[in-house]
Amino acid sequence: MDGACHCGAVRWHFDGVPESATSCNCSVCRRYGALWGYDNKGGKLSIEGETHFYSWNRKWLEFHFCPNCACIVYWRSVDTAKRPGRPVGFNLRLAAPEAVKDLPLIHHDTETKDDLPRDGKCVADVWA
Ligand SMILES: [Zn+2]
Questions:
Q1: Rounded to whole angstroms, what are the CA distances from 71 to 56, 94, 97?
Q2: N or C: which end of the chain has fewer CB within 10 A?
Q3: What per-residue confidence (pLDDT) applies to 7?
Q4: 28 Cα to the center of ligand 1, angstroms
Q5: How far apart are CA 30 and CA 82, in angstroms?
Q6: Predicted confidence band at 110 (pLDDT cuts at 50, 70, 90)?
């Protein structure tokens, strides 16, 4: 699966199909409106192109974006002790809609630090 920012300068490639797409309501994700796929075991995601990043949460998360068109491409944890299972999230909104439309949607709640019960929605339900 592939994704690209609007101008095409930054691209991601995921070797496989992500299990789901996560919508997170934390203070930064809700502003970006990103849908995250996770490279859970690591090594399946590759990034091409120069990015700038915004550091957040005592600088243990970096949100990388295209310096030209400003699309959010991925985030990564620079402290793997804090997030051993999910070191990288990549923005599924940069993929072709038909490639991600059927992925089940997961709502992550930052208050409880947990995923909410699944509501049966998929990416196509929030794409428009
Ligand atoms: Zn761009």
A1: 17, 8, 16
A2: C
A3: 98
A4: 20
A5: 21
A6: confident
